[in-house]
Amino acid sequence: MKAYVFPGQGAQFVGMGKELYENSAQAKDLFEKANEIIGFRITDLMFSGTDEDLKQTKVTQPAIFLHSVILARTIGDFKPEMVAGHSLGEFSALVANGTLAFEDALRLVIARANAMQKACEVRPSTMAAILGLEDKIVEDICAQIDEIVVPANYNCPGQLVISGSIEGVKQACEKLTEAGAKRALILNVGGAFHSPLMEPARVELEAAIKATHFSTPVCPVYQNINAKPTTDPDTIRQNLIDQLTGAVRWTQTVQAMIADGASSFTEVGPGTVLQGLVKKADRQMPTFSA
After folding, report:
1. Which own/partner pairs from 95-99 qualify as long-range (CB within 8 Å, at least 24 positions apart)?
2. What predicted TM-score, i.e. pTM, was given to this entire model?
C-alpha cells in the first residue's frame, strides 16, 4: 500500500509553491482562494518573501498547509490508501483523505497558528532536539525535572524533541547530556509546541474544530497522538484537539504504517525531512517526493 505523508512546521522555504502556481490553473485558483480567506496575499510571502517572513507562525503554518494540499491536488490518479502528517501536516493529511474540505481546513490552520502564536507570547518557552538516547531515558529524565518539560516529537529512533519552559528545557538538556546524549540542541522555535504550555491554544482551537464538519475519509489517517489508524470522524476530531498539548508520535506512526502494509512513502509538501525519518525507521523502504 502507498503511504502519503505531509510535513509540518520547519519545512518552509522561500519560493515554495511558486512553480505550482505558475504551471497549474487549478493550483492558481486554490492559491487565490486561500489569499481571500486569509485576508492577505500569503502567496507573495511564499514566493518572494524573506526567511523571516516565513518564520512567523501565522505565515508558516498556512503556507506549508497550502503547498502540501495543493500539491496533492495536482498528483495524477491520487488515491491514498493510508495517510499521516507530522504535527501541522495532520491537517494536510485530513484534506488529502477527504475528512476536511480545503476551505474548512485552511480556516482551522489559521486559527491554530494564531492561537499557538498567542500562547507562545504568554510565557517564554522553547524546545530542544535530543540525539542518541533511548526514548525511555529521555522520558524518565524529563519526569524528574520540577519545571515543565515533556517529550514532544518522537521523530525517529534516537531523535526526540523535548518541549517546555526555558528553564525546564535547559535543566533537562544538562541532565540528558550527562546521561550520554550525543547532542542536546536548543531549537530556534517560537515556543513550547506539543506541551502543556499550549493549553490556551488547545482550548481556543477546540471550539473551532467542534464547529467544523468532519466527513468519513476514503482511507485511514494515522494520527500523531496515538499513532493508530482511524476513519471515525469523531475520533479524528478529538485526536486533532489533543494533538496541540500531546506528543507527536512520528516514530510509532511510521512503524505502525509499515506493520500495516505500507510498501512506499511519498512525502507531499516542501522539503524531504519526513523521507529521512522514514529511512531511519526502515532503510529499505522506498521513499519519494510528490
Report:
1. 95/69, 96/4, 96/6, 96/69, 96/72, 96/268, 97/217, 97/218, 97/219, 97/220, 97/221, 98/215, 98/216, 98/217, 98/218, 99/214, 99/215, 99/216, 99/217, 99/221, 99/233, 99/236
2. 0.96
* Catalytic center residues: 87, 194
Q: How is domain 125-186 classified at the CATH fold level?
A: Alpha-Beta Plaits (3.30.70)
Options 3.30.420.10, 3.40.50.970, 3.40.366.10, 3.30.429.10; CATH of 2-121+196-289? 3.40.366.10
Beta strands 2-6 and 264-267: pairing type? parallel
Q: What is the mean pLDDT of each run of 10 residues along the chain (290 residues)?
A: 95 95 96 97 96 89 97 90 98 98 98 93 93 98 98 97 97 98 92 96 96 98 98 98 98 98 97 96 95
